[in-house]
């Protein structure tokens, strides 16, 4: 049996026996390998650990069960988990939301949205009481499509066109640092890895750039540049989560969800704006 066949057989076994939460040694024995060698082989070919794969299977099954059961404890036991806390951990680690938040799908949440003109183009903005949940360029994707994505993200929420409630998210972008609000909150959800990447993007200083590989190294996963790129592309909040600051290792711009021309425009604006602020902070030369 070659390595690909072993991995396929192991994954099929985990799918069929996910409710039993099989141990690493059990799955390894099924494909006639030691636990150590199976772990290395699986990670090499799949890109994640067997434990992570089983967690993902469990999470997806948990999502299905959420539609028909009101008891998180019953769902946890059906999935082969020891209790509701384990189910909670699976959701938070892989989806960055709690089971309750996932099941409610925005029920009871008021989401305001609006479209605002900016020097960089028209922007679609949506906010919840907890913060900004979506921003995107209308000239790259239609407002209707952006609204449809918002509705898909928050299917049970009440969406209201209220540009007076969303304008602050754009105004703060073009305000001088001393004129900005004390803090801005973001309300996003994603996998644990996506959230980690988006947090890393927030640490890139204004007017500076970072490569995908540098972000992967900062996360302690130096071989995950491709996965970092996918997470960057899934960023739901343009500009405030600065995915435009990420480039290829070679110095090439790389892709951008809103188009390469828009990425060039944003980078140029940010560099010029940052340079202007630095110049204003310099003390005047002595006469």
TrEMBL record:
Organism of provenance: Vreelandella rituensis
Range of residues in the leader sequence: none
Any Pfam family the entry gives: DNA_binding_1
Name under which the protein is recorded: methylated-DNA--[protein]-cysteine S-methyltransferase
Swiss-Prot/TrEMBL GO biological process terms: DNA repair; methylation
Record's catalysed reaction(s): a 4-O-methyl-thymidine in DNA + L-cysteinyl-[protein] = a thymidine in DNA + S-methyl-L-cysteinyl-[protein]; a 6-O-methyl-2'-deoxyguanosine in DNA + L-cysteinyl-[protein] = S-methyl-L-cysteinyl-[protein] + a 2'-deoxyguanosine in DNA
UniProt cross-references to InterPro entries, sorted A to Z: Homeodomain-like_sf, HTH_AraC, MethylDNA_cys_MeTrfase_AS, MethylDNA_cys_MeTrfase_DNA-bd, MethylDNA_cys_MeTrfase_DNAb, MGMT_N_sf, WH-like_DNA-bd_sf
Domain HTH araC/xylS-type: 8-105
Transmembrane domains' residue ranges: none
Source taxonomy: Bacteria, Pseudomonadati, Pseudomonadota, Gammaproteobacteria, Oceanospirillales
GO function terms (MF aspect): DNA-binding transcription factor activity; methylated-DNA-[protein]-cysteine S-methyltransferase activity; sequence-specific DNA binding
EC number: 2.1.1.63
Top EC category: transferase
Keywords: DNA damage, DNA repair, Methyltransferase, Transcription, Transcription regulation, Transferase
Similarity comment text for this entry: Belongs to the MGMT family.
């Amino acid at each position: 049996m070659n390595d690909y066949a072993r991995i396929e057989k192991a994954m099929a076994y985990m799918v069929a026996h996910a409710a039993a939460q099989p141990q690493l040694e059990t799955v390894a024995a099924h494909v006639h390998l030691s636990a150590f060698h199976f772990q290395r082989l699986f990670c090499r070919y799949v890109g994640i650990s067997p434990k992570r794969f089983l967690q993902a299977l469990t999470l997806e099954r948990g999502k299905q069960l959420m539609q028909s059961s009101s008891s998180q404890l019953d769902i946890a036991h059906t999935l082969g988990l020891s209790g509701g806390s384990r189910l909670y951990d699976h959701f938070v680690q892989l989806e960055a939301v709690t089971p309750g938040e996932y099941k409610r799908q925005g029920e009871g949440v008021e989401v305001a949205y609006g479209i605002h003109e900016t020097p960089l183009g028209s922007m679609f903005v949506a906010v919840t009481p907890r913060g900004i949940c979506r921003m995107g360029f209308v000239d790259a994707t239609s407002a209707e499509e952006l609204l449809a994505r918002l509705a898909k993200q928050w299917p049970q929420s009440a969406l209201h066109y209220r540009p007076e409630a969303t304008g602050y998210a754009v105004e703060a972008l073009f305000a001088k640092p001393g004129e900005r609000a004390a803090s801005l909150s973001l309300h996003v959800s994603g996998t644990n890895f996506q959230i980690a990447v988006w947090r890393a993007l927030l640490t890139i200083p204004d007017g500076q750039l970072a490569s995908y590989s540098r972000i992967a190294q900062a996360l302690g996963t130096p071989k995950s540049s491709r996965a970092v790129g996918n997470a960057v592309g899934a960023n739901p909040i343009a500009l405030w989560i600065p995915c435009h600051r990420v480039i290829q290792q070679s110095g090439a711009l790389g892709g951008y969800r809103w188009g390469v021309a828009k990425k060039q425009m944003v980078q140029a604006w940010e560099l010029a704006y940052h340079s202007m602020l630095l110049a204003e902070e310099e003390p005047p030369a002595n006469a």
